[in-house]
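Sequence only, no structure available. Ideas?
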Amino acid sequence: MTPESQIIHHGFAILNECIDTSRIQSLEKELSELKVFEFSSDASRVNLLKHSKAVHETANNPELNGIITNICDRKMFPVKAFVLDKALDNNWAIPWHQDLKIAVEQQVAAEGYTNWSVEAGITHVHPPVHVMERLITIRIHLDSASEKNGAIHVVPGSHKKGVIDNDDIQRIAKGSGCRLCTVDSGGIMIMKPLLLHDSPPSHSSARRRILQIEFGYELGNGVRWYDLS
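Reply:
I predicted one. C-alpha cells follow.
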C-alpha cells in the first residue's frame, strides 16, 4: 500500500529514512541556535516557518509536498511549524484525543467556526469538520521514537468518524485496534488531525524531539491562518 493510500484509509503513514542525516543536523543546529530546545524560552512557542530558514525549506520540500498533493483535493501549503520536545526533565503526556483547533489571525463571524479562544495571545478556533478532514500534519523525527521515550499510539481509521465525543473516545481507544507508532530518527509520520491518538510520558533518558509541520489551504469566509503574512 502506498503512503497516499495508507493516509487515506488508515489516517497515517510512517516513512523511515525519509530525511537525510545532513538535513536533520541542519535542523538541529538552527533550532538550537534559536533556543527552541530550551524549555523556558519563548522561541519554543513561535511559528518556526517564519523564524527558521531550515524549517521553511524542509516544509517546502518537493517530495513531501508531492505526497500531500496526491491525497488532497486542493492546493495545500505549510501554515504552522513547532517542536515537540519530550525528555525526563520536560516530561509530559496527552491522553487520547483528536486535534480539533487551528490558530488564526483574529475572530470573525464565519459559519461553522466555534469555540473561539485566546491562548498565549493567539486566537484559536474549532473549524467545521470538513476543514479538519482536509488538513495534514507531518511529524519529522529528529530523534527516534519508541515505546520507552513516548512514541504516540493511534487508532487506524478513526479519522473517518468525524468529531468523536469523549465517551466514545475512551471506548474506541480501549479496543483492540490501537497501534504504537515507532519512528526512526530522520523518519516522518504523516497523519490526519482527526486521527485518534495519544502521547504517553517518557520512561527513558533518550530525548524525543519532533518537528511538527501543519499544512492547510485558503479557508475563505474571512478566516486567515495566524502569523503567515
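The first strand starts at residue 12 and ends at 15.
Hope that gets you unstuck.
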